[in-house]
Amino acid sequence: MADVWLPSLKTDTPQAGFELAVKLSRMGVKLTQPSDQVRSHLRAAYEQDSSQLINASHVIAVHFQTVAAANNWWR
Fold first, then answer.
1. Is 22 helix (H, G, I), strand (E, B) or coil?
2. Keyword annotations for this protein (predicted)?
3. pLDDT tens digit string along 59-68?
4. How far is the CA of 1 from the CAs of 4, 6, 72, in angstroms?
5. Distances from the Cα of 64 to the Cα of 10, 27, 37, 72, angstroms
6. What is the pLDDT of residues 19-45, one digit of tens each?
7. What sign for the dihedral angle of Cα 73, 13, 31, 41?
8. d(CA 18, CA 49)
9. In b/e form, how buried is each residue of 59-68, taking b as 16+ CB within 10 angstroms?
10. In Å, what is the CA distance from 25 to each residue of 50, 75?
11. Which pLDDT score, from 0 to 100, does residue 18 have?
């Protein structure tokens, strides 16, 4: 992956930080499974599975903790 898509964890607002957390999560999935076709096929299974959706939310929350720490929001 040659393109720089994450120049910084710094964001102007918590909402922008949350959006960055979602992007981090999505990019993690994309790097783990680079095939658009496979990801699309798998999406049909997890979009109907509440446990998998909760797990996805957990991953986003962990990324948001990282972004919040980088922005010193817990002072």
1. helix
2. Oxidoreductase, Peroxidase
3. 999 999 999 9
4. 8, 11, 29
5. 12, 14, 28, 12
6. 999 999 999 999 999 999 999 999 999
7. positive
8. 23
9. bbeebbeebb
10. 18, 25
11. 98
The pLDDT, as a whole number, for residue 74 is 82
- Is 51 exposed, middle or buried (CB count within 10 Å of its CB: 0-12, 13-18, 19+)? exposed
Q: Are 27 and 5 in contact (CB under 8 A)?
A: yes
Nearest to 66 by CA among 20, 29, 12, 3: 20
Task: Report the alpha-carbon distance of residue 32 to residue 30 in Å, rounded.
Answer: 5
